[in-house]
Write a structure and sequence with these properties.
Layout: E1 23-26, E2 28-30, E3 34-41, E4 44-50, E5 58-59, H1 61-66, E6 72-78, E7 84-97, E8 100-109, E9 124-126, E10 135-139, E11 144-147, H2 150-158, E12 161-163, E13 165-168, E14 177-184, E15 187-193, E16 201-204, E17 221-227, E18 231-240, E19 246-248, H3 250-253, E20 256-261, E21 266-271
Parallel strand pairs: 4-9, 5-8, 15-19, 16-18
Antiparallel strand pairs: 1-11, 2-3, 3-4, 3-7, 5-9, 6-7, 7-8, 10-11, 10-20, 12-21, 13-14, 14-15, 16-19, 17-18, 20-21
């Protein structure tokens, strides 16, 4: 189940005020499948999903009220199926993540519980926009999110493989994410890297035959493909109508640690440091 994500369409330069020391933040697995962490918003603690495909960070009404936000205006985004989402905004929201402060120029106000009925409550969902200008490594297998320093980033990428990516901005430029290049016989497909997707790969009907898949089949089909030239992925995929080429979620993040350089717009992957650990 994908909780929330928006298709990125515009560009806005924004800077996160983050500390310089390397910080390792422990993760929990919300609903046994999506990485989540504890953070505070303007000094008020909450529990948030960490969704690399979310585009824009969002908080719920209770956290917004407690943190002194007066919602206004409108943010508009689109889920990968084309569903439009409209919600209000809070400006200049400061998140504290493991003692590291990040200021987000625009955060969305969104009731995630409407999309997660019957699941444990969360106070919002954090996306890559909170780390604009910095580098972070998400290792779901090891249950860690590392905010890198220049030195730790250099060490990290020496043993990682760079993959081709396209930076994407959404919600009027407030959001931030990456699509990864997936070679096909007809050219490069671009698929969203999405830690908020807890199911199989999702491949768009318009490219499904290039992966040997039957279009519009909600039953998972076996699939093999690569990220870039040499990062193999094997698993199952469903096919459906999308406004992107595909979505890469749990079956990828459970096996690979992903380093996002949000200053130079580059991404590296390496086997998770806990590759053989079962995803609880």
């Amino acid at each position: 189940m994908k909780v929330i994500a928006v298709l990125c369409t515009a560009v806005l330069s924004c800077v996160s005020a983050l500390a310089t020391a390397q910080t390792v933040v422990p993760l929990e697995m919300w609903n046994r499948s999506i990485p989540a962490l504890h953070a505070s918003v303007n000094g008020h603690t909450g529990f948030f999903l960490f969704d690399t495909g979310g585009g824009i960070s969002v908080i719920d009404k209770q956290i917004a009220q407690a943190s002194g936000c007066t919602p206004w205006g409108q943010v508009t985004g689109f889920r990968m199926t084309g569903e439009r989402l409209d919600f209000q905004r809070c400006d200049n929201v400061t998140f504290d993540i493991g003692g590291v402060h990040a200021n987000v120029p625009i955060a969305g106000l969104f009731d995630i519980d409407k999309l997660t009925k019957g699941s444990p409550h969360v106070d919002g969902s954090l996306a890559l926009d909170i780390f604009a200008g910095k580098a972070v490594t998400l290792d779901v297998g090891a249950r860690t999110l590392t905010i890198e320093t220049p030195a730790s980033l250099a060490r990290r990428i020496r043993v990682a493989t760079e993959i081709p990516v396209s930076i994407v901005r959404c919600s009027g430029g407030a959001g931030l994410g990456f699509d990864v290049g997936v070679p096909t016989p007809r050219g490069m497909a671009w698929m969203e890297l999405d830690s908020g997707m807890d199911g199989p790969f999702v491949i768009a009907d318009h490219v499904a035959p290039l992966f040997g898949l039957q279009p519009d089949l909600k039953t998972p089909q076996p699939v093999n493909f690569t990220l870039g030239k040499n990062v193999p992925l094997k698993g199952t995929a469903i096919t459906t109508k999308l406004i992107m080429d595909g979505n890469i979620g749990k079956e990828f993040f459970s096996k690979w640690a992903v380093t996002f350089d949000l200053k130079r717009n580059r991404v590296w992957v390496a086997p998770t440091s806990a590759r053989d650990e079962a995803i609880r």
